[in-house]
Amino acid sequence: MKFIIRRGEVKDARSLHNFNITLQKEMHDLFKKTSLKEFAKAQLCDPKAYTVKDYEGWLSGMNGKIDSQLNNIWYVVESDNKVVGEIYAEIKERKGMQIKKVGYIDSLYISKKYRNKGYASMLVERIMKWFKEKNVTNVSLDVDIVNTSAKR
């Protein structure tokens, strides 16, 4: 399978929106299978809270800028001309703290059919390169307790 990692574009908005909905469903199902069933009752995030138009707006904010000019960025992995995964990260400035800039990986998703092929690792490597280019030395990532595959 041929693949590429590239920056997200407006044309990817529908794929990213669908990934968010699928991710919420997958997390809901994972919680239902554990002793933490009470978390499955309430959605962590309403998957319909954001529309394709919202994603188009966020992605268009990156247009015309090079990576080093951005404080938030999306990368996607494309396999056989189809977007099969994504990573979104941002840099936040913290006033009054010793570490002024912190990188946050807010979203990482790979379609089920394309998992365990190294795509997530490649996306993380790419985002870490971007953080380094932006002189970010502290990076944070949250993982839901039931998402054991993400903890590897």
Task: Average the pLDDT over all residues and give the rounded result.
Answer: 82
Q: Helicity range of the residues?
A: 25-40%
Q: What is the distance, rounded to the nearest whole angstrom, between the alpha carbons of the first and last residues?
A: 24 Å
Order of helices and strands: EHHHEEEHE
Kindly state the number of beta strands: 5
Cα gyration radius (Å): 16 Å
What's the shape? Answer: globular
Query: Tell me about the biggest sheet?
Result: 5 strands, mixed
Portion of residues in beta strands equals 25-35%
The low-confidence parts are: none
Q: How would the blueprint of this fold be written?
A:
Elements lengths: L2 E5 L5 H20 L5 H4 L10 H9 L11 E8 L2 E12 L7 E10 L8 H15 L4 E4 L11
Parallel strand pairs: 4-5
Antiparallel strand pairs: 1-2, 2-3, 3-4
Helix pairs in contact: 1-3
Fold and architecture overview:
There is one protein chain. With 152 residues, this protein is an alpha+beta fold. Helices cover 32% and strands 26% of the residues. It is built from 4 helices and 5 strands, in the order βαααβββαβ. The protein has helices at 13-32, 38-41, 52-60, 119-133, and strands spanning 3-7, 72-79, 82-93, 101-110, 138-141. Strands 1-2-3-4-5 form a 5-stranded mixed sheet. Helix 1 packs across helix 3. The protein is globular, with a radius of gyration of 16 Å. The protein starts with a strand and ends in an 11-residue tail after the last strand.
